[in-house]
Amino acid sequence: MSTDISGSVADRQRSRAGRRAATPNAAGQIAPPRQRRPALAALALLLIVGGALVAGLLAVRMDSRVPVLVAQQAIEPGAEITADDIGVVRVASDNIGLIGEEYADDVVGAYATTRIEPDTLLTENNVSSETPIPDGRAIVSVPLEGKLAPTSTVRSGDLVQVVRATASSGGTEDAKVLGTAFVLEVTEPEVDDLGGPGEVPTASLLVLDDVALEVIDAASAGEAGLAILRSGQEPDVELEGAK
Questions:
Q1: Cα(119)–Cα(169) distance, integer angstroms
Q2: How far is residue 135's CA from residue 77's CA, in Å, rounded to a whole number?
Q3: Using an 8 Å Cβ cutoff, are 183 and 156 in contact?
Q4: Full set of structural domains in the chain with CATH
Q5: Cβ burial, residue 151 (10 Å; 0-12/13-18/19+)
Q6: Cα torsion angle, 152, 154, 160, 164, sign
Q7: Which InterPro entries has this protein been placed in (predicted)?
Q8: Are 237 and 182 contacting, i.e. CB atoms less than 8 angstroms apart?
Q9: How far apart are the first and last CA of the chain?
């Protein structure tokens, strides 16, 4: 007996064909579009814009630096300023009171109102067109080392007594009063390369000219002491000489 299988085979083929039509080929599938991340895109845009703004501000800041006058060497109080004493540097324009390069001709021939250290920017306070030394008086500098002078309390406008105390003095009876002085200014020391203090502070004193040499000699020997008599005085205060 023969068995006809053509119908069953055809049925199975039609069934497989139907299943293939119902299930798409994975290789032919199209991947869905990737979702964008708006937050990351906005952050990247902010970083780009922010970087551009910072660069622009730095450029503007550099352009705002202006040329001003600076001391090339030490200038003693009361000394007439020469062209060799001054140079030019560029600094930020928001520094108030500095003297611009365009006033160099006016500064030459002017006077230092206090001791000006090298590399110090010239200001309206340390330069005067008129001599700060009245007739019969002189300006001297005295270091405030703490042993003989009250470093933390001496201020501009103080009337002080200048005393010479030698290192070998056995007591106060050996000290010599050199006279009184008016404190024009106290100059703080510059910091050194390591960030520590450099030289000690110095006081610019207005004294009678007949005791100036004695005060300078005592200061250079480290023997000049200061005693505060009165504070808040004017430069025309009456001064005394050696007793």
A1: 38
A2: 15
A3: yes
A4: 64-132 (3.90.1210.10), 133-243 (no CATH)
A5: middle
A6: positive
A7: SAF, SAF_AFP_Neu5Ac
A8: yes
A9: 158
Tens digit of pLDDT for each residue in 19-76? Answer: 655 555 544 555 555 555 666 666 666 677 666 666 666 655 555 788 999 999 988 8
Q: What is the pLDDT of residue 110?
A: 92
The residues with which 228 forms a beta bridge, in sequence order, are 160
| Cα angle 239, 81, 116; round to 5 | 65
Query: How much is the pLDDT for 187?
Result: 80
Q: Which two tokens stand for residue 102?
A: 């365009």
> pTM (2 decimals)?
0.52
Beta bridge partners of 94: none
Q: Tell me the three-class secondary structure of the chain, residue by residue.
A: CCCCCHHHHHHHHHHHHHHHHHCCCHHHCCCCCCCCCHHHHHHHHHHHHHHHHHHHHHHHHHHCEEEEEEECCCECCCCECCHHHEEEEEEECCCCCECEHHHHHHHCCCEECCCECCCCECECCCEECCCCCCCCEEEEEEECCCCCCCCCCCCCCCEEEEEECCCCCCCHHHCEEEEEEEEEEEECCCECCCCCECCCCEEEEEEECCCHHHHHHHHHCCCEEEEEEECCCCCCCCCCCCC
CA distance 202 to 211: 18
Rounded-to-integer distance, Cα 187 and Cα 116, Å: 9
Q: If you average pLDDT over residues 167-171, what whole number do you get?
A: 53
- Mean per-residue pLDDT of the chain: 77
